[in-house]
What does this fold into?
Amino acid sequence: MSATSSSASASGARRTADRLPVADTRTVWREARRSLAGRWWQLAGVVTLLTGGAAAGVVSPLALGAVVDIVQSGRASGDPAAVWMLGGWMAASILLAALLGAAGVIGASRLIEVALADLRERMVDTAFRLPQSRVEVAGTGDLISRAGDDVAVVAEAIPSVVPALAGSFFTIAVTLVGMAVIDPWYAVVLLVVVPVHALAVRGYLRHAPQVYAGERAAVADRAHHLLDSLRGLESVRAYGLAPAHIVRIARVSWAVAGWTMRARAIQNVFFARLNLAELLGMGGLLVVGFVLVSNGSGSIGGTTAAMLLFLRLFGPINELLFVVDELQSALASLGRIVGVITCAPQRRPSRVESAASAGTVRLTGVAHSYIEGHDVLSDIHFELSPGETVAVVGASGAGKSTLAALVAGVHEPTEGSVEQECSVVLVTQEVHVFDATLRANLTVARADATDEAVVDALARVGATPLVSRLASGLDEPLGSSGTTLTPAEAQQLALARVLLADPELVILDEATAEGGSRDADRLDRAAAEVGRGRTVLIVAHRLSQAATADRVILMHDGRIHEQGSHAELVAAGGGYARLWRAWSREGEA
Amino acid sequence: MLLQAPGEPPRTRPLRVDDATTARRLTLRVMTAAPRYSVPAGALSVTHQIGEALVPVLMGLAIERAVSTGDLGQLMLWLGLLAVDFALLSFSWRFGSRLAELGMLAVQHSLRTLVTERLLLRASGARRASDQPGVALSLATSDVNRLSSAVEIGVYPVGQFAAVLFGGGLLLVISWPLGIAVLVGAPLLLWVTERAGRTLRDRSGDEQEAAAVAAGQAADLMTGYRVIRGIGAEAEASRRYKQTSRAALASTLHARRAEGVFGGTMDVASGLFLTGIAVAAALSAVTGGLGLGELIAVVGLAQFLIDPLQYAARNAGALWASATASSARLLALLREADPDATGAARSRRPAARGIGRIGEGELVGVASDGVEAQRVIAALRQTHPDALAVPNAAHLFTGTVWQNVALPGVEATRARAALTAAGCDELLDLLTQGWDSPVGEGGSALSGGQRQRVALARALAQDAPVLVLNDPTTAVDAVTEAGIADRLRSERTGNRTVLVTQSPALLAIADRVVRVDSPGSRTGSAA
It folds into this structure.
């Protein structure tokens, strides 16, 4: 009992340590700067445009203040020409502000979009250059969510965050200067209101991120439960589980509502505090204007201009504060994207230099463990000659797949050596149909393959009926947003890819297991075709595959138990012979 | 805190759907399904907007009556009124928006329940697009969310419309020519800029999707990570992603440019309009027509009115359009007819002939290929309506191994015996928490063979009087399969069982084996 719990906690600790890293803010900036290298002059241009635009935007309120002064001083005898001239200034400044502002926002978005595109491409590229065992311990799920969700979070944040930051920051700064120009005391009022804003933001940031994270998790949970029932709809019907599942879905669905209301409450408190800041600012400006006008050092127009400038800030300030949360989650996602990039981009580990000729594999004294002290394989010696087909059989957990992965070079053995100097392809039970056309699903294995080669490969694995079933033939979109293939068809695709990749060594790890009974024969024939003229290591779960192999290895508890040709092992009357008798009972009847 | 979501979803008006229901009518029903929340929320939205409209008016009056006169009492009065106005607008928003949200969530919930019931309870058979889990999911989430947003149309645009009426009325009182200029000019201006911007925004919407495509492709490539590494296609995968990413970047930049130009155009149009109003008001003030406070109020009001006008015009229309589009999609699901079961069955009947009735306690093996197997099972369902026909796909539900096997009504001893019979005992070595170990999403924590064995245990635990198993051990290795075959026999003693399979080990335990090939059928019996 104690052994179990200690190993469980050890593997738990291991898992955290082995997860792919998340970059800190400084690293994110460093990599972002690298992605923007050579674009510094563009950045300077953007800053100039935004400052100019914000400055032009201040002209209108100031001009309106001047208009008020004209009205106040020269009531009924004022000069309409002066009003017209100020109107002209306002119109010109509005045109200029809009032009510069729009150009600045476009420029800023451009810079950031380019940097993001570069970062996401570097992430995907790095992910494929990492040692595969590194990814295996971290789990591919982590990579999937970084490449999909995190990239989407950042991409969706940009349209609201960039204009808010670019526009608001400069508008607020320039408005402050504008107020100080009218009278420094007005700017002081603005500065006094800042702590109220700061408190509002701090309160918001203290609670909002957890609540939003909770809401996102609840939404994911809802999607997860819906998908769970929808994917298993046949089982839901067969076992009469629909009422129970409907109740379960309703429960997780209403859980989302709880989070949404909590988020709304936090937002409302935040807005109420911003309203308070607005009230304090306006009241403060009125009081300052009252004092300045009373003692003769300020004008009514100055008070009006200051108030109008402040009114204009409501939008930008709210916008800026409101994207703080989105900015935070975008930065968190960026950290996860950059984290992959910073994983030391090692080359694939070079294989042990050996004198073995092409197509030869030699395992000497190999042992392997995923968790220290728990050997999955031990004392493995064997050799594969060029062109030879070797089948590995044994019960689940006997170490067959680990053996295949070691030969393929996915993992380095903990002990002993694996010598293998040839091009190798590993096909496992885990098939994936890419979200692309049938053609693209195959040419992924060989980019320059002609349509003829593709059609030929499909024909050789017996998938010609598939091509004629699809309305658009090779151009048919497959995968998650296209036509769905049966598991057997998906495995045929996987085998056809091997033909196009044309390796010297092919490792088939139960690569024909998922199909139904009838498909089994077809897939076995396809596998035989794929192995023709190559060295083949096949992890077989149907003994018919072992019977046709040159040699059979029977594994038990991580060791090679029996080894020899099918006929030899059957004649020897050991474990394999017993298996074979059970398997072929019906065959003989 | 006041007005949190209650523990149980609040009841809404029933959302009736019949043959006469159109997409528009359903949208209207959804809009008015929670009047308990949306009516008070709409009223609060009106007071909120009026409070906002009063801010520039109070500001103008305060400058005229207090700042320009130096009267301290007036300053106090106007500061007080400003505070009251801010309290009004702030609290109206606070409770109004919360009520609106709660109403929308309640409607969303009952709509989702309606859709889920339809998806899970409808008969199988006809091939429908919504059979694809992804399509069904988007109906039950995105479309339900969009349609239930229609509740908001009855709340916020009402307030915005009220603000426009109120502000316009104030302007008319202050100066009727300026009032008319603003009330006619502002909507006209918005209409013109909206038309100019519509094509730009439509395009930017399309181009937003390009970014989503890039994210989707990256996730797709990572899902196929092992396959890509297995065939050594790393460079090609990376190249493909770069291609998609660059295409997405190009259209995203295009979208940003369109948005920037659109925003700039709106700024210029509204800015020039406001300048025109300000100049006209100032000219009127210079000649003595308008007072100082009125001048400031006119300028402030004209600036304020742009916002609610913009939202009322743009958001209400967009909300209605997207709600109606989702409404049409959901209607198609809620109104679809059940497939014609009798017609489908008639064509399948011949396949059952060779099998005949399953005798008491008999275990029949049916050796049949993939296509024929489906027909055989459909025919068996006809002759034995009480049969449990286990789906071929071994789908496990989120939860533990135990929760998957010991379904409601199954005794613990039955479940345990079934687990043993299905060869699951050796899983105990791998599962850290025994039968209470979670199986992961769709059983992803288990291998294909392990999943199949747990699914088999689930079927055996039901102790069904007639059990039809379709290829239950395809992903199970030969050693384990032989063990399962031995135990299956005694596990089903006294009950009728049909094994549709080509596995020799399984067919070997049958009382009789029927071969069903496409042309006809013949019967043979096993030793």
Summary: The beta strands of chain A are 361-371, 374-384, 389-393, 415-420, 424-428, 505-509, 535-539, 551-556, 559-564. Residues 242-294 of chain A form the longest helix (53 residues). Confidence is low (pLDDT under 50) at residues 1-17, 348-355 of chain A. The radius of gyration of chain A is 35 Å.
